[in-house]
Amino acid sequence: MTAEKKEFAFSTADFEAVRTKLKKLTGINLADSKDSMVYSRLARRIRALRQASFLQYLNYLDNHHQEQEEFVNALTTNLTSFFRENHHFEALEAHLKKHPKSTKIWCAASSTGEEPYSIAMSAVNAFGRFNCPVEIIASDIDSKVLHTAKQGVYRIDQVRDLSTEMKKRYFHRGRGNQDGKVRVVSELRNMVHFQKLNLMDDSYSIPKNIDIVFCRNVMIYFDKPTQLTILQKIIKHMAQDSLYIAGHSENFAHVSQLLTPLGKTIYKPKRG
Question: Residue span of the signal peptide, if any (predicted)?
Answer without folding.
Answer: none
